[in-house]
Amino acid sequence: MFDPHRAGRRRMLASIGGLFAAAIAPPALSLPGNSRTTLPGDRLESLAQLPPAPPALRRALEPLHGKAVLVNFWATWCEPCRTEMPALVSLAESEPGLALVTVAVADRADEVRRFFDEHLVDPVLVSDPEQVVSRAWDVRYLPTTVLLDTTHQPLLRVRGELDWHHDSVRERIRSATKSSRPART
């Protein structure tokens, strides 16, 4: 004889078991060699174009002509931004032909300078207290980083914090900047 209450309990227990299995499954699905494994470098999305750089950013980019540039939008009040800044500086220093420009979004100049002094870093800084630069480039998340090629055309973008020390990230940046260089004649 069919008992609807018993059948309902079985379905509920099966659902709870399914939720439990799903909760523990992702680590097992992320094993090396699995097609669902995502490397940090895969988070760098291709970027075909951006509006022209606003004057403050253009002035910062001018002396860097001929170098690929990471433009990092950040703020001292953004904890992920603070966490990744030393790694970004390290990356720019370790890669010949790569420069770092930081855009301090809606931040106070004294806080920015104090942060750089505390971390003994001195990247090129564009102050963006009114968010002119970040709005022009549609930056809605902090941190956001854009990789520009040697002619300062956009190549890649990542929204959110990234492990800039990871080999997949460094390789993706090297590969993108290498393939974007004009052929020598």
TrEMBL record:
Pfam families, sorted: AhpC-TSA
Domain Thioredoxin: 25-178
Keywords on record: Redox-active center
Name by which UniProt lists this protein: Redoxin domain-containing protein
